[in-house]
Amino acid sequence: MNNGNRRRKRYRVRYDRIIAVALVFIILIFAIASCSKSCSNKKDKKKTNSSSIVDDTSSVSQADTPVQTPSDAANSSADPNAASNASSTEYATTKVEYAKINMGDLVLVNSMYEYKFPEGDINVTDIYSNRNENDYSVADMNVLLDSNVITQLNAMMAAFHSATSSDDLRIVSAYRTLEDQNVKHTSGQSKIKGGYSDYHTGRSFNLGIFPDNSGSYYYKPEGIYSWINDNAANYGFILRYPEGKESITGDEASTSIFRYVGAPHATYIKQNNLCLEEYIENVKSYTYGANTLKVTVGTDQYEIYYVPANVNNVTDVPVPTNKTYTISGNNVDGFIVTVSPT
User: Fold this and answer.
1) What is the per-residue pLDDT across 128-150, written as a single tens digit (0 to 9) for each?
2) 155 near 235, Cβ under 8 Å?
3) Of 118, 126, 244, 334, which has fewest CB within 10 angstroms of its CB?
4) Phi and psi for 260 in degrees, rounded to 5?
């Protein structure tokens, strides 16, 4: 009897131990599950924080991306991919001496702004020896232009000849030295004194029409010759003294005097019916980065912006690091940067 009780008591004790161990296991499992859930929440929080950091960085990058103004959007409508091409521009700075303000295709020369004849600005050469012989003629071998302008002139005249089969156009006059202009001024042939003529730039010329067996006259956009007015901007040329702008240019209107400024500038000037003086002033409202002027020529979009010159020192001019660009002084107060699409 006593032996039986002892046996039952031993069995009960062992059963209690099993229950105790089971409770320990249950507590451990609960603890592990709680820890796992807590760790998971921490990871989710880290993910959320990481995501918000990426979003913030993205918004900063977008703030530096050029944004089209309504007028620019109209100019770029021909190329749906142009805006994204322009927005990828990356910038650094380059130092430009103040004297460079007087150099470049966009220098403004009129009765207020004198051409300084800076060394290295132009490379004048005679048109006669460098022209497309069968496309147009030149008054004589003393008619000079900047060599780059001659290249663009040849391209335009070749296209005109191809479109019309005419070789009636003639370059009557072009570059003038300071002495040449002073002689014309003194003799009464010109009201403009030396230093203030746009011909000094080597980028302006006077165009005439010399048909066979007929009288010659200064160029007018009539008949087949209107092709020049319609297409000159594609080659970088503008009318230097358009009608209705006399009070701005300070000179008489002329249908025959053309000036080279470069295709994107000429395109914008033509589209917006501006003279060079108006364009130089207008472009000052555009800066690099988010506020560049965007002009589409064909399928290529250009970015244009203005940087004021530091009068007392060199100017840090923002320029693209991943695209081709040119810098031109405006001969007034700053620099105009033109960024090509590639």
Assistant:
1) 999 998 999 999 999 999 999 99
2) yes
3) 244
4) -85, 130
